[in-house]
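User: Please fill in residues for this 184-position structure.
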């Protein structure tokens, strides 16, 4: 899957997203179009889907019980990012930049965000002993996914900023209750 995504990303950069076909991606990855569709439902999915959710779940479940839900999410995300190579982080940033620029990918990312909220709600519910459809669980899950999305887009536009550092700072801000002060 990662190889197909790398070829797709390269072709999207070289030719543009709209001009690149599934057939071209499959050819570059040395697979058939039918094999492509075994991994990805649509052309958009090749940029939206990744293998990070199972890693996040495992890292989250490994966090000590004494941590608050947000602290556990922060620690899990930090653990996951620290295990990524520089190349993986660069590919993630390139994908995020593309998602930010291409309307079809932004729309597909919305669908992915909804799935991620469901995933996050399940993780938080399991940790807290609540139901995944509990209003507070769903609100927190949505807030965490919103923080991730805002930092993803911000760092895609500002390459000089470190994603892990910004994500941790933003989750800390969320954990503190979003204490936004007026600038005078």
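Assistant: Residues filled in for all 184 positions:
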């Amino acid at each position: 899957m990662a190889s197909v995504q790398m070829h797709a990303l390269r072709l999207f950069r070289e030719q543009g997203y709209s001009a690149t076909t599934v057939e071209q991606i499959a050819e570059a990855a040395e697979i058939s179009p039918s094999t492509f569709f075994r991994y990805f439902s649509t052309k958009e999915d090749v940029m939206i889907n990744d293998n990070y959710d199972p890693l996040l779940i495992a890292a989250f479940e490994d966090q000590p019980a004494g941590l608050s839900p947000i602290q556990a999410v922060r620690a899990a995300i930090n653990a996951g990012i620290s295990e990524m190579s520089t190349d993986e982080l660069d590919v993630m940033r390139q994908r995020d930049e593309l998602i930010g620029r291409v309307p079809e990918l932004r729309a597909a990312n919305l669908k992915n965000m909804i799935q991620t909220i469901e995933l996050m709600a399940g993780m938080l519910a399991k940790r807290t002993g609540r139901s995944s459809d509990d209003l507070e669980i769903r609100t927190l899950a949505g807030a965490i996914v919103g923080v991730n999305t805002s930092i993803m887009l911000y760092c895609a536009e500002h390459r000089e900023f470190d994603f892990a550092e910004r994500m941790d700072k933003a989750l800390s801000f969320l954990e503190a209750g979003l204490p936004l002060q007026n600038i005078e």
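For context: The chain is about 75% helix and 0% strand.
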